[in-house]
Amino acid sequence: MADRARVPDYVLIGRILRPHGVRGMLKVMPETDDPQRFHLLKRVWLRRADGTRQEIEVDQVRVIDRSVLLSLRGVTTRDAAEAWRGSEIEIPGDQLLPLAENRHYYFELIGLAVMTEDGEPIGTVKDIISYPANDVYVVMAGDREVLLPDSPDIIRSIETEKGRIVIHPLPGLLD
Predict the structure, then answer these.
(1) Where do the domains of the chain lie, and which CATH numbers do they carry?
(2) pLDDT tier at 63 (50, 70, 90 boundaries)?
(3) Of the four listed, 21, 74, 75, 142, which is most buried by Cβ atoms within 10 Å?
(4) What is the 8-class DSSP label of residue 23?
């Protein structure tokens, strides 16, 4: 489970893309590697771009490929669904599911120090970009960004308890 000291109050689990159909369903892009987890939800918190958050009950979940169709209590028309377009779907941090060994939530990695196997400091993880093949860590190294693919050839260890990621820099990676 995630280090409780680092768990935020709310954790992003998806983004509402658009209405789906005329009965208020929402098409959601999940921010999880297992969209089936949406079936476990009873309530979610929707956060609009202005930061306002509203708790709402989940009525129905359908997972289709990598997207989720979500029906929420009280959202019964296409217009009502349209009002939530672009909103983020969150859950309280204390409702996170445990991850398999050597798996991490993104929030656990943001802010970790990155260093080489020899102990040379590289920078700090600023962001994570998710691609189908693998994630890419955006590391601030002084005044520039370094992109590190999450590949076992490069990432040797992720030690959240020590606040660091140890890498093996392949030739040209840090240039």
Answers:
(1) 4-94 (2.40.30.60), 106-166 (2.30.30.240)
(2) very high
(3) 75
(4) T
